[in-house]
Design a protein that fits this description.
The chain is an alpha/beta fold. The protein folds into two domains: about 1-175, Rossmann fold (3-Layer(aba) Sandwich), CATH 3.40.50.1970; about 175-365, Dehydroquinate synthase-like - alpha domain (Dehydroquinate synthase-like, alpha domain, Up-down Bundle), CATH 1.20.1090.10. The chain has 14 helices and nine strands. The chain has helices at about 25-35, 45-60, 80-90, 105-120, 135-140, 175-195, 195-205, 205-210, 215-235, 250-260, 265-285, 290-300, 310-320, 350-365; strands at about 1-5, 15, 40-45, 65-70, 100-105, 125-130, 165, 330-335, 340-345. Helix 6 runs antiparallel to helix 7 and helix 10 crosses helix 13. The longest helix has 21 residues, at about 215-235. It binds nicotinamide-adenine-dinucleotide (NAD) and zinc ion (ZN). Zinc ion binds near residues 186, 249 and 270. Zinc ion binds near residues 138, 266 and 270.
Length: about 375
């Protein structure tokens, strides 16, 4: 088992990563939670159907009394009304301050269950058991919770660190290919921002081989978790350092928004965003042509991406309203080498427009 410490001051915790860990969840939580017995597992039907039995068997073998509280699947249910509905269920089931909420699903479940745990009775304990690549390498680590408003994603949220994160890469075997790949782009992101070896692994690999190689998959996930852990440990509330995690997300978020969140999975939009940031870095002479080419090829090498058809002007407009703008200034996280990024503001509009144009061109070639 690989253990990664997430050194948040006052509430440090561990992520445990191991293929097959789900079956040992009960034992693991028994050590963590002492004599507490009541667990409330928040999940969605696709995850419960595939993995619920295994989780429940492990928990009951360890003496836990577990209740499943289900929410409907999908990003559109990541809203405050769902937190309220789940709270009603918890209250009917008699959950009190000693309750432990287990988030069992992808990033949507993690964010909603996290928010629920942070507000139910002004805060109860939370355990994250992420089941998508996106959630295992990113969403479950760092304590950000949140829900969407109709027009703006993640506008409501809290910080609520889990007591532990249990990551079983074997659960990824039932993920659709496209969802799997979308999460791997976030790992590739970790490679570019600070882990050249992880970058190298991913630049050489075929995604279908990675899916068939539990040991390698475990390492890729663990390295990504370590990267996120390192960044959030140093900067829990995203004042500075944590922003490097937004590599690819500036243009990525704009692409998601301009297509009404329907065309791209989040990771796919980030994939294009990483290429855009790399083109911008190259145009500003911040990165050598060879490294820039490698990043672009590594992204495109992971598999097909939905085409970019958006106009540069539309992207620029959205960038101005992105949450990552501070005082109206757009910040880009730009690669200056493989494994190193810097935060740059004041990128001329012309260069952003050219980068988007290049995405459109690459789209039509691929
Ligand atoms: N809190 C954070 O720091 C943070 C960071 C990144 C992303 N997020 C959030 O994460 C969300 C996206 O997460 P996601 O990509 O995991 O999407 P998701 O939670 O919607 O999961 C994607 C789909 O996969 C299904 N699924 C989950 N696990 C499965 C499994 N093992 N087998 C088969 N199907 C499975 C889900 O039911 C869903 O239909 C977004 O809302 C985003 O804002 C949060
Ligand atoms: Zn992301």
């Amino acid at each position: 088992m690989i253990r990664v410490n997430i050194g948040i001051p006052r509430c440090p915790y561990e992520a445990a990563i191991e293929s097959g860990l789900l079956a040992r969840t009960g034992a693991h939580l028994r050590t963590l939670l002492g004599d507490r017995r009541r667990l409330f597992v928040v999940t969605v039907p696709p995850v419960r159907r595939r993995w619920g039995q295994k989780l429940l068997a492990s928990l009951s073998a360890a003496g836990f009394a577990t209740k499943i509280v289900e929410m409907p699947d999908g990003e559109r249910h990541k809203k405050l009304a769902t937190v309220e509905a789940l709270s009603e269920k918890l209250s009917r089931l008699g959950a009190d301050r000693s309750a432990v909420i287990v988030a069992f699903g992808g990033g949507v479940v993690g964010d909603v269950a996290g928010m629920l745990a942070s507000v139910y009775m002004r805060g109860v304990d939370l355990v994250q058991i992420p089941t998508t690549v996106q959630a295992q390498v990113d969403a479950a680590i760092g304590g950000k919770t949140g829900v969407n408003l109709r027009a703006v994603k993640n506008l409501l949220g809290t910080f609520h660190q889990p007591r532990a994160v249990l990551i079983d890469p074997a659960m990824l075997s039932t993920l659709p290919d496209r969802e799997f790949r979308a999460g791997i782009y976030e790992s590739l992101k970790c490679g570019v921002i600070g882990l050249p070896e992880l970058f190298q692994t991913l630049e050489r690999i075929q995604v279908r081989d990675l899916r068939r190689d539990p040991a390698k998959l475990e390492r890729v996930i663990a390295e990504s978790v370590k990267m996120k852990a390192k960044v959030v440990s140093a900067d829990e509330r995203e004042s500075g350092l944590r922003r490097v995690l937004n590599f690819g997300h500036t243009v990525g978020h704009a692409l998601e928004a301009v297509t009404g969140y329907r065309r791209f999975l989040h990771g796919e939009a980030v994939a294009w965003g990483m290429i855009a940031a790399t083109k911008i870095a190259a145009a500003l002479d911040k990165i050598d042509a060879g490294s820039a080419q490698r990043i672009t090829e590594a992204v495109l090498g992971l598999g097909p991406l939905p085409r970019v058809e958006a106009r540069g002007r539309a992207i620029l407009r959205l960038l101005q309203s992105d949450k990552k703008t501070r005082d109206g200034i757009v910040h880009f996280v730009l690669p200056c080498a493989i494994g190193k990024v810097e935060i740059v503001s004041g990128v001329p509009d012309r260069i952003v427009l050219e980068a988007v144009e290049e995405l459109r061109q690459l789209s039509s070639e691929n």
